[in-house]
Amino acid sequence: MKIIKYPERHDWHEIVERPIVATEKVFSLVLPVIQEVKEQGDKALLRLTEEVDKVKLSSIEVSESEIAQSGNDVPLQLKQAIEMARRNIWKFHLAQMPNTVEVETSPEVFCTQKSIAIEKVGLYVPGGSAPSFSAVLMLAIPAQIAECKEIILCTPPDEQGKIHPAILYAAKISGVKRVFKIGGAQAIAAMAYGTESVPKVYKIFGQGNHLINAAKQLVYLQGTAIDLPSGFSGLEVLADKTAHPEFVAADLLAQCEQCADNQVILLTTDEDIITPVLEQIEMQIEKLPQKEIARKSLENSKIIVVKTIEQAVEFTNLYAPEHLIIATQYYKGVAEGIVNAGSAYLGNYSPISAGYYVSGTNHFLPADSLSKAYSGVNIDSFFRKLTFQHLTRAGLSNIANAAMLMAETEGFAARCNAVKVRIDEEIIKPEIERR
Amino acid sequence: MKIIKYPERHDWHEIVERPIVATEKVFSLVLPVIQEVKEQGDKALLRLTEEVDKVKLSSIEVSESEIAQSGNDVPLQLKQAIEMARRNIWKFHLAQMPNTVEVETSPEVFCTQKSIAIEKVGLYVPGGSAPSFSAVLMLAIPAQIAECKEIILCTPPDEQGKIHPAILYAAKISGVKRVFKIGGAQAIAAMAYGTESVPKVYKIFGQGNHLINAAKQLVYLQGTAIDLPSGFSGLEVLADKTAHPEFVAADLLAQCEQCADNQVILLTTDEDIITPVLEQIEMQIEKLPQKEIARKSLENSKIIVVKTIEQAVEFTNLYAPEHLIIATQYYKGVAEGIVNAGSAYLGNYSPISAGYYVSGTNHFLPADSLSKAYSGVNIDSFFRKLTFQHLTRAGLSNIANAAMLMAETEGFAARCNAVKVRIDEEIIKPEIERR
Predict the structure, then answer these.
(1) Which residues of A361-394 are buried (b: 16+ CB within 10 A; e: fewer)?
(2) What is the DSSP track for A296-360?
(3) What is the largest CA-CA distance in chain B?
(4) Which residue of A has its CA nearest to B203?
(5) Cβ contacts of A317 within 8 Å, gap of 6 or more
(6) Which residues of A404-418 are buried (b: 16+ CB within 10 A; e: fewer)?
(7) Alpha carbon of A338 to those of A4, A345, A377, B224, B387: distances in Å?
(8) d(CA B63, nearest CA chain A) in Å
(9) A407 closest CB neighbour out of B231, B357, B366
(10) Which residues of B touch A342 (CB under 8 A)?
(11) What are phi and psi of A240, to 5 degrees?
């Protein structure tokens, strides 16, 4: 890790620069896959699955009974853990449910904003030997709370054509009704355009490798909504002298083991913490199966020392970390100052792993510095807000002159006329029998 | 308008197809502009403004005094109309303000979701002889309510290098502090990357021609958030025998006059309404300055007759109109069934113009059929939802086993360890003095 002590304020912008994710560079790899799926549907999916996942599928869809019985192949303890996660994610996301807003803005001008669930959503989780069942929980549970009508899941099969039972079990208990054995850009294309087997959805959620992310961007450009733009994942630990070096090291490594491109930052007001943290990293990293990945990620990473907690907060808001651990004495006060971050963990006993799995917060968060403009996945991600307005004849009269003058000034005569014909109308018969 | 009577259910999918907006096709035109602004900043802006807007600017920014005095050049009646619009937009968007959500998901596991305004937002409105001051109100007022710290506006100057006073006045009363005389893709690039004069923002709002929309997509791909993807604007009027042909015709034309690519649809259960509506269209269109545009738009447009209101609702949800007028006897019941639409206008006295200007609803809405997945601009568009979690030592103990088992099963040893080091810790000294 690069150590930067007391950088000048004018150097901060350079320090917070991240490596650029050039998703567009793989567009040319992904476009033909999307095109093939669009044109050939299931046939393309079967061919690509054979080519990429090395398995010839008889059916693209997981059978209902396989989903129903998935619990039999998941150890009891893991099922209990998943149930605890499910309950907490459910509670936290349920509390976020949007309300209907009704306002009489002018007399007899009634405006309403209603939240309505997106009808069809598609979830993607990666495959591999380590099953991303937590991603299923994070995406499917809010979709279930929102009551999206169609919730489908795509995930690549193993070489036996199977999906890990923990993924199927997580899907089952989170209201996912249909699971498809498809991975890669082909899965994104299938959900965006639909095939004989896979229904077209309106919004796609989930993350994967750079091909998945590029495919999401490409279908976004053609009208399918996506949860979040992709980027490199990151963590900042903001520590003062009350932080525990052992915990800090463990948290930094927890974000490094996943991907060599991840960046972690230790931002501290306490120079003396650097050595014990680095020692702890060395001790802990040796025990990690993914230590090579973690080491590479640490090469992108930095330790930055600033003078005051106020500076640390300012720096943090400039950096806009995805995950932020606040390991300081007055963590609540520090948290009050944070405006740019995906998710923050307060105090010495709130490890990043709590949020990854069980606490109830969502782990799909804005990567890079995207938290400056984006929220992580939350209940809103599964809703749209529609507006309704109802004006009585009197209500329209109240705003008619203003609307007509504004329309006229903007050069829209027909918009003006749509008001005029109504207020000029002669009331002869009761409204309902008029024609 | 093409008339389609009682189409079979299996033909509906074809009927709701819209022309495709191929924004990508102009990417190659827009990319060099973005690149030039990125590399040369203000110099590029001045050069492009001279080339495109035919004016050599001495300063890119409108002076503070010009904004302050803009009210002098706006007629009193228009100021009063704008004030009514401002007040209603304010009321409706203020009522949408998000709440903080706090849940103790497991004992001593405290999760919070806080809404924090995006710090820097950039608004774009088109120029021309007809000033889009209503767009300024629609975007700046919610930004002001959200308390975004920096709210800037870009709009192209006229050939005298001036901005229409109505735009400046709308900006002034909506909390916009800085206005820049830049149009086109160069304005989008300036706000996305910043120049010597124009501050970089995190999210860009507003619509324009296809170059603007392409530029927004391109900067989105590089990390700047945007309000909504673009598309062709549209309106559906859902009418039964209680609808007024004169009003229906006026509403259809109100959406046709703006752009030849707009599509409008009259969906009705009453065949007898067709002739009087077409007659009214012919009468009214002749008086419109933009009648040529309106006629072209009508060529893309359709009248569809279905048997029942239930079918009409189902068809509407498949079509997902941007604007929807429900001119039926039981409009409230019909509105209950609508799930896919941007904004709905209920009854015979709720013209589309009310929502465009004064009622208080936002007129930046999901075009094409994007309302299936997107909301129109609303107060949320100016916020991000951050999550915070605080676990006590006991709180962590309560979820530790579940988190560790899930992390382990997903193959993340370091995530598991970040919990383990904390619960294995021996408590010798009080926490605060530990180091």
Answers:
(1) bbbbbbbbbbbbbbbbbbbbbbbbbbbbbbbbee
(2) HHHHT-EEEE-S-HHHHHHHHHHH--SEEEEESTTHHHHHHT--S-SEEEESTT--HHHHHHTSS
(3) 89
(4) A373
(5) A337, A338, A339, A340
(6) bbbbbbbbbbbbbbb
(7) 22, 12, 19, 20, 11
(8) 24
(9) B357
(10) 386-387
(11) -115, -165
In one-letter notation, the amino acid at residue A82 is: I
Q: What is the pLDDT of residue A147?
A: 98
Q: How far apart are CA B64 and CA B295, in angstroms?
A: 43
pTM of the full predicted structure?
Answer: 0.96
The yes-or-no verdict on residue A428 having pLDDT over 80 is no
User: Rounded to an integer, what distance in angstroms lies between the CA atom of residue A229 and that of residue B230?
Assistant: 17
What type of residue is B199? Answer: P
Beta strands B150-154 and B178-180 are: parallel
The per-residue pLDDT for range B341-360, each reduced to its tens digit, is: 999 999 999 999 999 999 99
Sheet with strand A109-117: strands edge to edge: A101-106, A109-117, A383-391, B343-346, B323-327, B234-239, B263-268, B302-305, B2-5
Q: Is B256 in contact with A414 (Cβ distance < 8 A)?
A: yes
pLDDT at A26 (0 to 100): 87
Q: Which of B322, B363, B390, B433 is catalytic?
A: B322
Contacts with B180 (C-beta within 8 Å, 6 or more apart), sequence order: B60, B61, B62, B152, B153, B154, B155, B187, B190, B197, B198
Are residues B212 and B135 in contact, defined by beta-carbon separation less than 8 angstroms? no
Query: Which residue bears the tokens 């170059």?
Result: B211
Return the number of other C-beta atoms located less than 10 Å from residue A115's C-beta.
18
H or E element: which one contains A124?
Answer: strand A120-124
A2-20+232-360 belongs to CATH 3.30.565.10: no
| ipTM of the prediction | 0.96
Where do the H-state alpha helices sit in B129-202? 133-146, 165-173, 184-193
From CA A382, how far away is CA A387, in angstroms rounded?
17
Q: How does DSSP classify residue A276?
A: H
Same fold across B2-20+232-360 and B23-230: yes
Residue ranges of the domains in chain B?
A: 2-20+232-360, 23-230, 392-435
Q: How far apart are CA B245 and CA B239, in angstroms?
A: 9
Those residues of chain B that have pLDDT short of 50 are 435
Specify the CATH architecture of the domain A23-230: 3-Layer(aba) Sandwich (3.40)
